[in-house]
Amino acid sequence: MSRVLVNGPAAWNTLVSVAELPDPRPQMLLARAHRQGLGGTSAGKAVTLAALGVDVTLATLVGDDEPGAHVRTALHRPGLALLTSPVAVTEQHLNLMADDGSRVSIYLELPAPPPAASPAVLEALVAADAAVLDLAESSRPLLVRAREAGVPVWCDVHDDDGLGEYARAFAQHADVLVVSEDGPADARAYLRAAVDAGAALAVCTRGARGALALDAGGWWEVGAAPARVVDTNGAGDAFVAGLLAATLAGLPRADALRHAAAAGALAVASSELGAPDATPAAVEELARDVAVRRA
To answer: What's the 3-state SS for 185-214?
Structure first.
């Protein structure tokens, strides 16, 4: 069984469904629904990887508070080991979720990371077949450690535009880089720069329009898997998890991209973060309906 270290945020979120995101003016809104649940990009990847049969360790920051207890309970899943660093508070967000899939995330609590990675996290990193190092201060020292240990680094830089400083080290160290189309003004130029700088694969996710990818062999056009959209929360995380699980299983690049799209589709069909109830069989079946071609 492949082993993966995922390092980065896990949170306890309040999610509020609205018809559309509000204009920046004083007003009253009526929520369609609201609930609390697991959040955090690293948590979304970890629960999906575990569901797909990958032996995953999630290194994250969780406080000794009520939200932290909820996070630990939500992450108690077969195949998922949790390494938590003690912090004063657990990360919490208030997410406004619109019908068109857009979102505004308001950070209510953001824990300060410890000054250095714990020995347990470093041990898990060295033993991993791949490391998913998400955008977080606690991931920064692991970028170099992973390179020194020869562990492939996967980075999901979300809406990085290629100009901001925060994501630069992550993009530069990534063997596999994933970005959202909401970031770069020119997705093809962004992906080309990543591959020219040494990434083996660079992917731009495009929501319902699938994804665009580039590797040493050229461009890939990836279609979207059919899905009934319930909640887009964690769809990108599931895409990354599906791609990683398939890659570790030795699938060809085209099939791995199909699996990524299928995992993302299963995520949007669920109200939970990512695709925690996905199965390898469900992903395989849905992947058959995903069109992937060289562009």
So the answer is: CCHHHHHHHHHHCCCCEEEEECHHHCEEEE
Residues in the chain: 295
Which among 68, 84, 173 has a CA at the least distance from the CA of 124?
Answer: 84
Which of 100-104, 215-219, 261-265 is the least confident region? 100-104
Residues β-bridged to residue 109 = 92
Closest CA to 45 of 151, 140, 131, 167: 131
- The whole-angstrom distance between residue 57's C-alpha and the CA centroid of its chain comes to 14
pTM of the model: 0.95
- What are the distances in angstroms from CA 152 to CA 54, 95, 168, 177? 16, 32, 17, 11
Domains of the chain, by residue range, sit at 3-22+31-294
- For domain 3-22+31-294, the question of CATH label 3.40.1190.20 is answered with yes
CA distance 258 to 186: 24
User: pLDDT tens across 160-214, in order?
Assistant: 999 999 999 999 999 999 999 999 999 999 999 999 999 999 999 999 899 999 9
